[in-house]
Amino acid sequence: MFNAEFVSGMALLGAGIAMIAGLGPGIGQGIAASKGAEAVGRNPEAAGKIRSIMVLGIALAETTGIYSLIIALILIFLKA
Amino acid sequence: MFNAEFVSGMALLGAGIAMIAGLGPGIGQGIAASKGAEAVGRNPEAAGKIRSIMVLGIALAETTGIYSLIIALILIFLKA
Amino acid sequence: MFNAEFVSGMALLGAGIAMIAGLGPGIGQGIAASKGAEAVGRNPEAAGKIRSIMVLGIALAETTGIYSLIIALILIFLKA
Amino acid sequence: MFNAEFVSGMALLGAGIAMIAGLGPGIGQGIAASKGAEAVGRNPEAAGKIRSIMVLGIALAETTGIYSLIIALILIFLKA
Amino acid sequence: MFNAEFVSGMALLGAGIAMIAGLGPGIGQGIAASKGAEAVGRNPEAAGKIRSIMVLGIALAETTGIYSLIIALILIFLKA
Amino acid sequence: MFNAEFVSGMALLGAGIAMIAGLGPGIGQGIAASKGAEAVGRNPEAAGKIRSIMVLGIALAETTGIYSLIIALILIFLKA
Amino acid sequence: MFNAEFVSGMALLGAGIAMIAGLGPGIGQGIAASKGAEAVGRNPEAAGKIRSIMVLGIALAETTGIYSLIIALILIFLKA
Amino acid sequence: MFNAEFVSGMALLGAGIAMIAGLGPGIGQGIAASKGAEAVGRNPEAAGKIRSIMVLGIALAETTGIYSLIIALILIFLKA
Amino acid sequence: MFNAEFVSGMALLGAGIAMIAGLGPGIGQGIAASKGAEAVGRNPEAAGKIRSIMVLGIALAETTGIYSLIIALILIFLKA
Amino acid sequence: MFNAEFVSGMALLGAGIAMIAGLGPGIGQGIAASKGAEAVGRNPEAAGKIRSIMVLGIALAETTGIYSLIIALILIFLKA
Amino acid sequence: MFNAEFVSGMALLGAGIAMIAGLGPGIGQGIAASKGAEAVGRNPEAAGKIRSIMVLGIALAETTGIYSLIIALILIFLKA
Amino acid sequence: MFNAEFVSGMALLGAGIAMIAGLGPGIGQGIAASKGAEAVGRNPEAAGKIRSIMVLGIALAETTGIYSLIIALILIFLKA
Amino acid sequence: MFNAEFVSGMALLGAGIAMIAGLGPGIGQGIAASKGAEAVGRNPEAAGKIRSIMVLGIALAETTGIYSLIIALILIFLKA
Amino acid sequence: MFNAEFVSGMALLGAGIAMIAGLGPGIGQGIAASKGAEAVGRNPEAAGKIRSIMVLGIALAETTGIYSLIIALILIFLKA
């Protein structure tokens, strides 16, 4: 019989699977950081502007990682 | 027997799987941020225009991540 | 015995799997945004035209993500 | 025993799996959009011609995504 | 016991799996569209010739996607 | 017990799996089309020769997709 | 109990799996066709020689796809 | 019967799966470090600025790895 | 109970799996053909020498595909 | 019945899965080391500064590998 | 009960899996052949030396494919 | 029933899975070695400095491989 | 019940899985051979030195393939 | 019931899985050998120094392959 414990188990397993998405922002943000460092190395005077746009882009790329975090927390604390 | 708990379990597992899509926007947006930083480094005068188009592109790329979030929330709160 | 709950469970699991497609547009649109930012950085005067074609392309690339969203919603609300 | 519900369940699961194909056009169309933006940035005078061929190519690339949508709809509404 | 419903279920699942092939033409045709846009941007005078060969190539690349569609339709309507 | 229905089911599932091969020609032919468009853009005078060799290459690349189609049809109509 | 039908089923499933190899030649031959078109575009006078070596290479690359076809046919007609 | 031990087991398995996301930041941050070293090698005078933006980018890319760590710790200590 | 039919089934399934290796030579030989066509396009006078080394390389790359064919044939005719 | 041994088994299996994340930092840090060596080869005078930023970046990229180690140790010693 | 037939079945399945390794040499040797053709096209006078080193390298790359063949033959004839 | 032998079995299986992480450092360190050789070839006078930074980077990249080794040894000797 | 035949079966299956590692050296050595041919084509006078270092590198890259061969042989002859 | 034979079987299966890591060093060392050959071709006078750093790097990259070998041997001889 499938029972409440099965539901809880699936919720916790699903929380773990949801976090896998975090490897996407990790790779993408690292690439952004790499180009940021390269750009500063070429044009140190523009370091302020480069940092500002890089941080903005990375912050926006962070969102899907946060979505996964939210879903995982909901799965763990509300459904398991 | 498959029962209501089985349905709930599948809904929660499906929510976790749906979030995997978030790695796509994460990678793509990071690439966008990297090119944004590079472009600002090359042409700091155009920083405003570059930021505006970069944010526009990233915002549009965010959509499929949000779709996954919506589906996951529906699966969790309406079906499990 | 396979019963109505099995059907519902498969529908909800299928909805989660369908959303995985969203990582494709996410990556592709991010690449489009990256080239848009690069192009504006090289030729700021053409920013309007670049934005217009970039948004057009991204909007068309969005379609398969929307198809997945539609199928997932149908699976969840009509079949589960 | 495999019964009608098993058939319905497989149809709905199959619909979800079929939608995965949507990540292909998503990536491909995004690449097309990226090159469109780049080309307009280099040669803004040709923006009209570039947009026309880009949209044509993207529309043709959309087809396999639509095939998946059709098959998924058939699976859901005629077979489940 | 494996019965007629098992056969139908496998046919519908197989139809879904067959559609995955659609991601190949999707990516390939998108790449073709991207190069078409790039080529028109470089040489707008040749737009007609470029469009003609691009559409020809994309149409031929479409074939395997159509094969999958045909097989999926046969699986769904003749075997399930 | 494994019976005739099991055989039919495996044949139909196998037909679906066989079609996955279609993503290979799809990607490859798209790449060929992309280079064809690029080559015509660079040298429009040679458009006839380029088209002729491109179509020849794409036609030969089509073969493995056709093999899969043949095997799938045999599996469906002769064995299921 | 494993019986003759199990053997037939595995043979048909194996035939489907064997066809997956066809995506390799499909990608490879497409790349060959792309370079053939590019080479003709650069040096139209050598179109005959280019076509001859390209077709030779593609024909040799076809072999593993044919091996899979042969094995699949043997599995289907002699063993299932 | 699914019982409390099943829930605990799924929580611990999910914790392990969640940590897989850590390979994303690992790759991305390594790429960032590689470009940082390259940039310093080209422009040693800007080493301070390059280091500062590189560390900023890497720190932001670290976040999804930390999210996974948090979820894994919660799964282990609160749910298993 | 595992019996002779199980052995035969595994042999036939194994034959199908073994053929997957054929995608390797398919991709590799296609790349070789692509470079052969490119080389002839650049230096048509050396077409004979290029063809001779290309065919030699492709023939050697064929070997692992033939090994798989041999093993599949042995599995099918001697063990199933 | 799922019992304490099942929990222990899942914890140990999860510990093994968690360690897979270690391939990410391994690849990334190797890339960083490769660029470090290249940069020193181009500009040996800056070897000190290059080493310092490379080690800093690699140390930060190490973190997600350490998170996995910590989770694995917790899973093994506290939960199994 | 696991019996001698189970051992034979696993041996034959293992033989099929072992052959998958053959795709590695297939890809690698094809790349070697591609560079061999390119090198001859650039420097036809050195064709003899290029062929000799290319064949040497391909022969050494063949070894792991042969190891797999040997293991598969041992599995089939000594253990199944 | 899950018993102590199940725990031991999972520990040993987990040890094997944990070692997969070793392919990451293997690829990364090889890339580092390739760039080290290239750098020495370009600037033999700096061979000492290049070797010193290359070995430092490779040693740091080794760490996640060692973590996996440690976890595998713990799993084998303390838990199985 | 798990018995001695189960152990033998797992040993033989494990031997097949271990051989998959052989695709790594196959790809890597092929890349080495490709660069060897290219280098000889550019600098035929150094053919002896190039061959000597290429063979040395390929021989060292062979080792992990040999490790897999050894483990597979041990699994087959000592444990099955 | 899980018994000692289950433990042995898992140990042997785990040994096979652990060896998969060997494809990492195989690819990486091959890349190192390719760059070594290229570097010698460009600068034959530095062949000694290039060989010395290449072998050093390859030897360090070998380590994770050896770790896997050690773990596999331990799993086979101490635990199975």
- Assembly form of the protein: homo-oligomer of 14 chains
User: What is the rounded distance between the termini of chain A?
Assistant: 18 Å
How many DSSP H or I helices of chain A?
A: 3
SS-derived structural category of chain A: mainly alpha
Q: Report the top-level CATH class of chain A.
A: Mainly Alpha
Which fold name corresponds to the CATH topology of chain A?
Answer: F1FO ATP Synthase
Overall mean confidence score, pLDDT of chain A? 95
Gross morphology of chain A is: rod-shaped
Q: How many individual β-strands of chain A?
A: 0
Outline the low-pLDDT stretches of chain A: none
Q: Would you mind describing this structure in some detail?
A:
14 copies of one chain form a homo-oligomer. With 80 residues, chain A is mostly helical. Chain A has a single domain, classed as Up-down Bundle (F1FO ATP Synthase). The first copy, chain A, is built from three helices and no strands. Chain A has helices at 4-19, 23-42, 47-79. The longest helix of chain A is centred in the C-terminal third of the chain and has 33 residues, at 47-79. Chain A starts with a helix and ends with a helix. The relative contact order of chain A is 0.19. The mean pLDDT of chain A is 95. Chains B and H meet through helix 2 of B and loops of H.
